[in-house]
Design brief:
- The chain is of the alpha/beta class and 342 residues long.
- 29% of the residues lie in helices and 24% in strands.
- The chain has a domain of 233 residues.
- It is globular and about 75 Å long.
Length: 342
């Protein structure tokens, strides 16, 4: 059985549609309502454009867990089907974003009750839910894309812009999610933060593959949620399908993970929270065209290079900013094997 999860086309999110409508509005001079109408997403786009509040999930509504992903930023991340992180997020718990300086997320400090039967007048077993053990501190994710005015007017331009926004979002999300970065004033800790990597089993054969999987399960297998997934590089995903077609585990590929790395994640024991977002478009900004941007002119007079004036080059800059927080509801939810040989 092929264990690789396919990437079905995702329906455009409201945030993505708003970004496209804002882009086309600024380059064509047409009203955003007219553009949204043509795109077939008028109500969603206008609600977000006017900063309407998304409905809050309730325990009486169907699909309670999914409805907690109530903000447009969370919905946008869910459409990034080329992102392994987005696929994992959809399997975990989602809770409303709390205070910007940190908020408590639900965790367990004991195993679920194992004995449901209680005798007459006998005490009922008690299990404690801990709402203080995991503090989620939201961090800001942001990106700027610069696109030409001609692209917006060209046939197929909308599809090209949509695809580029998704690709940028997929790589950026995965790079942050599967990192070993420690928490700082600006950075969210990655899933691999603080982990000691398991060294891959030698030999490069089926036994090596099985030993690496077993090593991961030794860590994350006990009391797992039943939603274990494995993440590795894109080429290794295909290699697993070719060399080990009988493997029944769920394997996700990520452009942000090395082909010599295998990450095991108990996705059901992760918790995520999505906050507010901002979308801005500009035809007059000056931006530093770099993945490691700097101030255009630093305090010491250093000028960033290369820079672009979107006004002078007849381009449009689209900026998307959103808040995200995530963490583990129990210990030993993630394990990583480095230097795999198969």
């Amino acid at each position: 059985m092929r264990a690789i999860v396919s990437h079905p086309p995702a329906k455009p999110s409201a945030l993505e549609s708003l970004a496209l409508a804002s882009f086309k509005s600024i380059v064509t001079g047409r009203d955003i309502e007219e553009i949204a109408q043509r795109m077939g997403s008028k109500d969603d786009v206008l609600a977000l454009h006017q900063r309407a509040t998304a409905p809050v999930g309730t325990t009486t509504a169907s699909g309670f867990a999914s409805q907690l992903m109530q903000t447009a930023f969370g919905q946008y991340l869910a459409t990034l089907q080329g992102s392994a992180a987005a696929r994992i997020i959809s399997l975990g718990m989602s809770v409303p974003m709390g205070r910007s300086d940190g908020f408590a997320a639900p965790t367990r400090n004991t195993a679920p009750a194992t004995l449901p039967w209680v005798g007459e007048s006998a005490p009922i077993p008690v299990r404690t839910f801990d709402f203080q053990g995991l503090t989620l501190t939201p961090k800001k994710m942001a990106a700027i894309s610069v696109l030409s005015r001609e692209l917006a007017k060209r046939a197929g331009g909308e599809a090209a812009v949509r695809q580029m926004l998704r690709e940028d979002g997929e790589v950026a999300l995965d790079a942050a999610y599967f990192s070993a970065t420690s928490e700082s004033a600006s950075d969210h800790p990655g899933l691999l933060e603080g982990l000691t990597a398991i060294n891959g089993y030698g030999g490069g054969d089926l036994q090596a593959f099985q030993e690496d999987i077993s090593a991961i399960l030794t860590v994350i297998g006990p009391r797992n949620s039943g939603s274990i997934v494995y993440v590795t590089g894109m080429a290794t995903v295909e290699r697993i399908a070719l060399k080990f077609p009988d493997f029944r585990g769920t394997v996700l590929g990520s452009q942000a993970v090395a082909d010599t790395t295998l990450i095991g994640v108990d996705a059901g024991n992760l918790v995520h929270s999505f906050g507010d977002f901002d979308i801005d478009t500009s035809t007059s900004a000056t931006v530093h065209m770099s993945d490691t941007p700097a101030e255009i002119v630093a305090d010491n007079g250093t000028v960033a290079d290369p820079t672009r004036s979107v006004f002078q080059t007849d381009c449009v800059a689209i900026r998307i900013i959103g808040d995200l927080a995530f963490g583990q509801r129990k210990a030993d939810t993630v394990a990583v094997v480095e230097n795999i040989t198969w």
